[in-house]
Write a sequence for this structure.
């Protein structure tokens, strides 16, 4: 095709199919897809969600949650401070455990003896265990 022609006394400039035509087709396809989206339904559902969220956030219980969480964390901190090594309760527990360990250390020889000879509390150690006599 010639770059310039005449057609019925009109000047015709020759063109070739190119990138602009392809972009126009893609834009038309995109706009067609947008036109088919259920925007009204989506907006209605979004409005309903916002209304439900507003209702939830305006609830007094929901508004009290941050303060409740703060109070709980403060109580937890007090509890954890109560069991720190510097706390009186911790020292009392430590002393009690030390006493229990001391008592177990003293009882260990007796317990070992009873483990070796269960009747040691009943019979004298100097006497041998009696043997039952059967019919002869």
């Amino acid at each position: 095709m010639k770059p310039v022609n005449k057609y019925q006394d009109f000047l015709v400039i020759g063109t070739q199919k190119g990138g602009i035509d392809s972009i126009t087709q893609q834009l038309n396809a995109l706009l067609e897809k947008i036109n088919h989206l259920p925007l009204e339904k989506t907006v209605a559902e979004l409005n309903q969600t916002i209304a439900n969220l507003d209702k939830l956030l305006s609830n007094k219980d929901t508004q009290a949650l941050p303060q409740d969480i703060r109070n709980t964390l403060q109580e937890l901190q007090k509890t954890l401070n109560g069991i720190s090594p510097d706390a009186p309760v911790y020292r009392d527990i430590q002393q009690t455990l030390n006493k229990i360990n001391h008592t177990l250390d003293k009882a260990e020889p007796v317990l070992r003896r009873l483990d070796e000879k269960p009747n040691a509390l009943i019979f004298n150690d100097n006497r041998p265990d009696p043997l039952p006599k059967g019919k002869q």
Notes: The mean pLDDT is 84. Strands lie at 4-7, 10-13. The chain is about 65% helix and 5% strand.
